[in-house]
Design a protein that fits this description.
single chain, mainly beta, 7-stranded mixed β-sheet, 11 strands
């Protein structure tokens, strides 16, 4: 079965950092583009970052540029999202998603497989 499992969320103060993990099973991340998305209550799901199948391309939403970074560890079949300088507006459920044979896009509708999400809360 193709599965994605997010972890690493939690409660953090403004200005703090978290690293989210997206562990894949049933398929090899090397052949899929991976995107990170987030959704806050009452808001539309937003693309945060993505990395293409080879890891040669990345993309970031303007709202997180310079603060977040995405990376892949093929040996662990895991994608990470390092989040620094967190703001209260970063509070959301964060999801990772996989897209077969894709490049790197922040359009949620393009992705094929989704994890269940991990909650990130930024509050003092």
């Amino acid at each position: 079965q193709f599965q994605l499992a997010e972890s690493g969320g939690g409660l953090v103060q403004p200005g703090g950092s978290l690293r989210l993990s997206c562990a894949a099973s049933g398929f090899t991340l090397e052949h899929y583009a991976i995107g990170w998305f987030r959704q806050a209550p009452g808001k539309e799901r937003e693309g945060v970052s993505c990395v293409n199948y080879s890891g040669s391309r990345t993309n970031y939403a303007d709202s997180v540029w310079g603060r977040f970074s995405i990376s892949k560890d093929n040996a662990k079949n895991t994608v990470y999202l390092q989040m620094n300088s967190l703001k209260p507006e970063d509070t959301a459920i964060y999801y990772c998603a996989a897209m077969g044979y894709g490049g790197c896009t922040l359009a949620a509708a393009i992705y094929d497989y989704w994890g269940q999400g991990t909650q990130v809360t930024v509050s003092s």
